[in-house]
Amino acid sequence: MKQYLNLCQHILETGTKKGDRTGTGTYSVFGYQMRFDLAKGFPLLTTKRTAFRLIVSELLWFLKGDTNIRTLIQDRNGIWDEWAFERYVESDAYTGPDMTDFGHRVVEDEQFAKTYKAELAAFKEKILADEDFARKYGDLGPVYGKQWRAWDTDHGVIDQLAQVIESIKTNPDSRRHIVTAWNPAEVDEMALPPCHLLFQFYVADGKLSCQLYQRSADVFLGVPFNIASYALLIHLIAHECGLEVGEFVHTLGDAHIYQNHLTQVQEQLSREPRDLPKLNVNYAGRSIFDLNVEDITIEGYDPHPKITAPIAV
């Protein structure tokens, strides 16, 4: 994973100091590309422990077209909790303690952090216990899964992923193996507009490669997840289409390190990468759309310890 560490170093050395939507501030570069040969191992970061199970459950959530965090909470995945919680506390239904700007306050105020954790836990418990509440406040709007599997048009719903799989099988040399999550008509309805917004598949020599365009890349927290998630997606789609895996090409627009992640990035850069793990998928004759979290595992993963950092909401 030298490619990823090189990106971190490049931003530290050449990045421009910028403001951002969250008010945290970043060091940013524009336009960067990494390439990963998937035949050389599964690209799960080894300079810090990365939660592979969360990556798997989120990707399967996308593949099923789901947009409600209830499924993720049931899978013990909190990746999207803050986004749904933010929508809830900004609604008229919320009557608890003031949660304004909780993303910053939880880091700066120890007492507030306790209150926030209690409110978030209560919110998640209600999502699990009350289907009506979950339907209203657990849904993130028409985010990734909705766009991948059920893009609305005047002429009906388009399942982009199913179409691209069929296209790869029947016309592998096509230059139109594309899935996009950026729907201008629905961006404002999403809890978070898609960061990894468009990907294109490419078939050559019996191998499936994929290039992702990511408009916004949180390099410390988000990018390691994105790399592993799309590497996994390539493995799954390749299997579905009877192909071997090729390359994952990761193209970044605004690649940034948040100013409150600098210490963590420096610690990671001081560590030596270790051997990449191997991916195992138990297909058992099933489609990739029928897989469960337990069907997808890795072996030989021996990373350095986890490094924590606050998420910018």
From TrEMBL:
Gene Ontology biological process terms from the UniProt entry: dTMP biosynthetic process; dTTP biosynthetic process; methylation
Top-level enzyme category: transferase
Keywords: Cytoplasm, Methyltransferase, Nucleotide biosynthesis, Transferase
Reactions mediated catalytically: dUMP + (6R)-5,10-methylene-5,6,7,8-tetrahydrofolate = 7,8-dihydrofolate + dTMP
EC number: 2.1.1.45
Main location: cytoplasm
Pathway(s) annotated for this protein in UniProt: Pyrimidine metabolism; dTTP biosynthesis
Residues annotated as catalytic: C195
Coiled coil: none
UniProt cross-references to Pfam families, sorted A to Z: Thymidylat_synt
Binding site for dUMP: R21, R175, R176, R215, S216, A217, D218, N226, H256, I257, Y258
InterPro entries to which the protein is assigned, alphabetical: Thymidate_synth/dCMP_Mease (IPR045097), Thymidate_synth/dCMP_Mease_dom (IPR023451), Thymidate_synth/dCMP_Mease_sf (IPR036926), Thymidylate_synthase (IPR000398), Thymidylate_synthase_AS (IPR020940)
Ranges of residues in domain Thymidylate synthase/dCMP hydroxymethylase: 2-313
Any one GO molecular function term: thymidylate synthase activity
Any one Gene Ontology cellular component term annotated for this protein: cytosol
Cellular localisation: Cytoplasm
Binding site for (6R)-5,10-methylene-5,6,7,8-tetrahydrofolate: D218, A312
CDD domains: TS_Pyrimidine_HMase (cd00351)
The protein's role, per its UniProt record: Catalyzes the reductive methylation of 2'-deoxyuridine-5'-monophosphate (dUMP) to 2'-deoxythymidine-5'-monophosphate (dTMP) while utilizing 5,10-methylenetetrahydrofolate (mTHF) as the methyl donor and reductant in the reaction, yielding dihydrofolate (DHF) as a by-product. This enzymatic reaction provides an intracellular de novo source of dTMP, an essential precursor for DNA biosynthesis.
Family the UniProt entry places it in: Belongs to the thymidylate synthase family. Bacterial-type ThyA subfamily.
Quaternary state and interactors: Homodimer.
Descriptive protein name: Thymidylate synthase
